[in-house]
Automatic annotation (TrEMBL):
The protein's name: SMB domain-containing protein
Annotated ranges, domain SMB: 40-79
Disordered, as annotated region: 1-20
Domain of life from the UniProt record: Eukaryota
Species for this entry: Micrurus corallinus
Keywords annotated in UniProt: Disulfide bond
Keyword Nucleotide-binding in annotation: no
Entry keyword Disulfide bond: yes
Pfam families: Somatomedin_B (PF01033)
Length: 271
């Protein structure tokens, strides 16, 4: 089978003339090249969403019975299938297993790359990044340092108000947060979360700012989520954190933002 992928098969891609004897070896070259080409089209490696005359790598192939033999090995399912656009969700590939220690690169929406890992059970995991779009986006996976991305899945990026309550943090006494700094409103602020939602003994608590630039609804209207600073690094994942806010002249111009809690394995301000 190795001969099918050799350069010999490219020497003659048209069959020899009828009755010829001098070009008999070229017959095998032509057949080998043709079989190799058909074999490549019959694989879903890096081809999820495409189809060929031989078979299909589209999701509809499951009902039509036209899937390529390795469709379920490369066009994979993930769990969970959605997460907040702010990122930080641990996503596992369900169809396949890998050897531990492989260099995992995950690419979301065709452009944003993050580093993944292979768990003790052989499941490959990706960490969703900060995304500037909602809805279904592509998720591609590489284990060769980002040279090729044979595995593909779909990931749903949702607004953070739409995620399940167990995945949200809670502002204790939300009114106090909203009117903090006004007369009669001060003191420590408290934040709680579900510690089981982050498989980490310690977490980072970060402040991110949101801003929009340009003329609204024009081509130059852009949005920006920007890491501002950390409230606490390597904080025990107890599910509760209290702090006393301090005014900051450097970041006083930011009027809207979010607090992000991430596992301590992530770097500071990682998108």
């Amino acid at each position: 089978r190795r001969i099918l992928g050799s350069q010999r098969g490219k020497a003659s891609l048209s069959p020899p003339s009828k009755g010829s004897t001098a070009h008999i070896p070229a017959i095998f070259d032509w057949l080998a090249a043709l079989e190799g080409k058909i074999g490549a089209q019959a694989s879903c490696s890096s081809r999820c969403g495409d189809s060929s005359a031989a078979c299909s790598c589209r999701a509809t192939c499951e009902k039509l019975g036209s899937c390529c033999p390795d469709y379920w090995s490369f066009c994979v399912k993930v769990s969970p299938s959605s997460g907040t656009l702010l990122g930080g969700r641990d996503v596992a590939l369900l169809n396949v297993t890998f050897e531990t220690g492989l260099p995992v690169t995950c690419r979301f929406a065709g452009t944003t790359e993050t580093q993944g890992y292979v768990g003790p059970d052989g499941r490959l995991h990706c960490i969703s990044p900060l995304l500037y779009e909602l809805g279904l986006v592509s998720l591609e996976v590489s284990v060769d340092g980002g040279k090729t991305f044979p595995w593909s899945a779909s990931w749903s990026s949702v607004h953070h108000n739409k995620v399940p309550p167990a995945e949200k943090s809670t502002l204790v006494n939300e009114t106090k947060w909203q009117y903090y700094g006004t007369p009669g409103t001060g003191g420590p602020l408290t934040l709680t979360w579900n510690p089981d939602g982050l498989p980490s003994g310690h977490v980072h608590l970060e402040v991110w700012g949101y801003d929009e630039k340009g003329k609204p609804y024009s081509d130059n209207w852009t949005a920006e989520w920007k890491y501002l600073y950390s409230l606490q690094r390597n904080y025990p994942n107890t599910g509760q954190f209290s702090f006393l806010p301090v005014p900051s002249a450097r970041f006083g111009g930011w009027e809207m933002g979010a607090l992000r809690i991430s596992a301590n394995g992530s770097s500071e301000g990682q998108p």
